[in-house]
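User: Here's a chain of 368 residues. Predict its fold as tokens.
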Amino acid sequence: MTDSTLTLAADAAHRAPSRTGILLVNLGTPDAPTAPAIRRYLGEFLGDRRVIEVPRVLWWPLLHGVILPFRSRKLVHAYSAVWTERGSPLLAIGRDQCEALQRSLGDAAVVQLAMRYGNPSIAAAFEAFDAANVRQVLVLPLYPQYSATTTAAVFDAVYAELAARRWPPSLRTIDTYHDDDGYIEALVASVRAHWDAQGRGEHLLMSFHSIPLRYFEAGDPYYCLCQKTARLLAQRLDLAAEAWSVSFQSRVGRARWLTPYTDERIAELAASGVRKLDVICPGFSADCLETLEEVSLRYGEAFVTGGGEALRYIPALNAGTAHIEALTALLRRHLAGWTTTAPAPEDIAARMDRAGRLQATLLNRSQS
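Assistant: Prediction complete.
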């Protein structure tokens, strides 16, 4: 490539209008409901120091020698139970959310979806931003309640991607929206729509993903943010204190996690005489294995076995209109004051002309 060709290419690139990018990030999913695909996904997920805060010398042999070989095979049935014609529900819904937000935001931003673990990757999203001349990126981890195990893990991956680039874009991040009015109102609308369609249950259980108790004791604010979300939702639904409760699901291992545990709380409610139990998972922005298989199927069966009549799972907000409107408003607030439009070519030429005249004037003065 000649110098003149390089100059023309660089000139064209620098004159192209720059754009803003929105990076939506969710946890991740295997590429297929098979043991090898699940093993690859779990290896990346459980290998993250943000997720498992155990010295590598202790954790690595256990992870690769015991957990991955056995847990990967065990999860095949669970993933197969929720897999759809569009593949993983989390990924399919994520694509719907991405497309809906792109329509809602229009030309204001280029929206890309990525997964923290698995595909589509964060690196692939930044490659797409490069192709669209995105010079400013707003990152929205799709976790309403911040935790170092989720939100901070996303930021780690984004920062690592930017650190590898010669000219990284400007960056803004949203670390939590647990008490955002639009998000809370979308949850309220979801519960009321469920009640209108199926009648009101005797109790509303708000189940959040759990984290190890020692993470909370070390300063992770997740537990407090979940409690605030639940309290705001209960207030806006005008629920009496005995009509709702909070629990935490998806614990693994023998260590203590945030309590009360969802499976134990469900057993208590069934034993106490609750016949119709409504369960919502406000921490999940899209339905996935933990909501569809763990809560709706597995816990649903356990509730009936324990004496209940029906556990009615209230779907995640997914790509529903109220959710997309809430996220759009949230994104627009964080985009405020962030100008990305590059000067038009004629503006650049005018500025260069003025700069040339100023330089000539200064040169004449210095020679006089």
